[in-house]
Specification:
The protein is an all-alpha fold. The protein has helices spanning 2-17, 27-51, 57-78, 82-105, 114-137, 148-170, 178-204. 75% of the residues lie in helices and 0% in strands.
Length: 214
């Protein structure tokens, strides 16, 4: 059930993201729409594979790695500090190398790369925390309700803060039971629903509703 809702929410977030192409929005908003289309296709394929008895672990290894790099790039666009931007840029280059090293040397075969997924989630959390520090330390007056970066960052901070313990837990199980897998999958789906709901808000918050009077 959660998987169906999750896929529907991703589709809805992509549909709302199309509005970015009809407004004056930053580049990251338009590329977010492309990313959501990619995620929707990948998740749909993954669900189809699971329903047909095919392993989709490697697909999720690729998807989660690309998402983490994209989210780090997103924070590089909204953070002002030049030194921090440079650190994030270097991290984006190094991270996929760490993922490959982990898959070839540590978590080989049909295993989810929980070690590097957890590391990536931690990196996103650190970037999000710094963004909020910079945001609330700024002298600029910003209407947070109508600020897409605020909603996206809030969703990412919540999602990866909550999912990091899951990645840590998975590393303790080389061959987890089906009940554990289903339990963790349900939790992950609920967290993803909340995450993509924050993306929907981010794309809709800038739309101005005209008031008509008789």
């Amino acid at each position: 059930m959660w998987n169906d809702v999750y896929i529907l929410i991703i589709l809805l977030s992509f549909v709302t993201s199309i509005t970015a192409f009809f407004q004056k929005t930053p580049l990251y908003m338009r590329l977010f729409s492309v990313n959501l289309a990619f995620v929707f296709v990948m998740e749909t394929v993954a669900v189809w594979m699971a329903n047909n008895g095919k392993y989709n672990v490697q697909l999720y290894n690729i998807l989660s790695s690309i998402e983490i790099m994209f989210f780090l790039w997103f924070f590089m666009q909204i953070i002002d500090n030049t030194a921090v931007k440079r650190i994030i840029k270097i991290t984006i280059i190094i991270y996929p190398l760490i993922v490959l090293a982990n898959k070839f040397l540590v978590q080989k075969g049909l295993q989810y790369h929980s070690l590097t997924a957890g590391l990536g989630g931690l990196l996103v959390v650190v970037a999000a925390v710094y963004y909020f520090f910079e945001l609330f330390d700024s002298d600029k007056i910003i209407n947070l309700v109508r600020e897409p970066a605020f909603w996206i960052s809030s969703g990412l901070l919540f999602f990866y803060s909550c999912s990091f313990p899951l990645f840590t837990l998975i590393t303790f199980f080389y061959s987890p039971s089906d009940s554990i897998i289903f339990y963790l999958a349900d939790i992950s789906s609920v967290l993803n629903i909340l995450l993509y709901s924050s993306f929907i808000v981010a794309f809709l918050c800038r739309i101005k509703i005209r008031k008509f009077s008789l």
